[in-house]
Amino acid sequence: MKKIIISTGGGDAPGLNAVIYAVVKTSYKKGWEVYGSKSGYGGFLDMDDMVRLTPRDVEGIYATGGTILGSTNKGNPFAKPVENLAGEVQIIDVSDKIIRNFNRLGFDCHVAIGGDGSLEIAHRFSQKGMPVIGVPKTIDNDLEETDRTFGFDTAVSTATEALDKLHSTAKSHNRVMVVEVMGRDSGWIALYSGISGGADVILIPEIPFDMEAVCQKIADNELREKHYAIVVVAEGAVTSDGKVFNRGKGELGREEVILGGVGEWVAAEIRKRTEKDTRSLVLGHLQRGGSPTTFDRLLALRFGAAAVGLIEQKIFGHMVALKNSLMVPVPIADAIRRRKKVAPDNDKIATARDIGICFGDTESLAP
Q: Are 304 and 18 in contact (CB under 8 A)?
């Protein structure tokens, strides 16, 4: 009988519970035991944060958002902030303790569900000898070596629904509505939701934008008797002169780019340059919440079941990936090598340009 432990790390995403459900149900069919580590690696360090997971414990959770295990994006065991007796915060490495506890408790494999940050940590544990299987999770869809990550489809659906609703209020008041969406420095959410939601302008990190081109599109709308506009901006969008929008410092005051604020800046520039009534809206964590869509639910269930299959085959140090509609193992090292970007020649970029969507670049200025 095998003994498995699951962790969910980084930002939450719709479909996490579906993966947990699939791992537990598939494992128990084989007679294996499954445990969950709360708040990332909390259960590896404190037994109070470790829970036994049985089919009864996970019944029905595949349809719910979030994660029953909790998550954290501040729990890197290789650089864990700890406050000493003097009240000073020190950064320490507790990875060896986690390895010892993993072995002492008799676990055979760690199923790490996460994005590039969480999978990088899992890869480091794999290099230290821990049998690890990765499952790709991120609403940003920016992990290499997998066609899709679960959570992305739900985030896009949430953003598209918001755009649908904004059309009526923008049209009623002849306004420009600027909507900032997530995605870090990849434009997948902005691109998919912007096309599906009928945006006039889509600004993504992969195509630096110029406000002249953006405002010309809005002026063109006026010439065509369309007196409102919808602008979708990815949080990591950059101007043609390299301006990046940063909300502040990271954890413990360390210098770190925390993206955000570009939507408000774009709205202010449009208002100044066109004198149009302009509003900005940040969807933020709405994109992380809610029940997973059918696509994400099915994808997450497939990932979870496939992860158990890799454990059975002892294919450790690998991540389950979706490739050409099939579940395949890929080395975690390859998956985290770089973030997946929107290529300028992507067919969806071409579709958007064909239907008149502006990307704020020189090509958008062409007649």
A: yes
Residue % of the chain over a pLDDT of 90: 84
**pLDDT band at residue 264 under the 50/70/90 scheme:** very high
Computed over every residue of the chain, the mean pLDDT equals 93
Does residue 57 have an active-site annotation?
Answer: no
CATH architecture of 3-150+292-335: 3-Layer(aba) Sandwich (3.40)
Q: Which CATH superfamily is 154-289+343-365 part of?
A: Phosphofructokinase domain (3.40.50.460)
Amino acid symbol at 155: A
Closest CA to 13 of 322, 292, 259, 298: 292
Instruction: Select from 48, 113, 39 the least CA-distant residue to 69.
Output: 39
Given the residues 48, 57, 93, 140, select the one marked as catalytic: 140
Strand arrangement, sheet containing 176-181: 201-203, 229-234, 176-181, 278-282
Q: CA separation (Å) from 305 to 31, 50, 224, 301, 321? A: 14, 22, 52, 6, 12
pTM over 0.90? The answer is: yes
Q: What is the DSSP letter of 292?
A: P
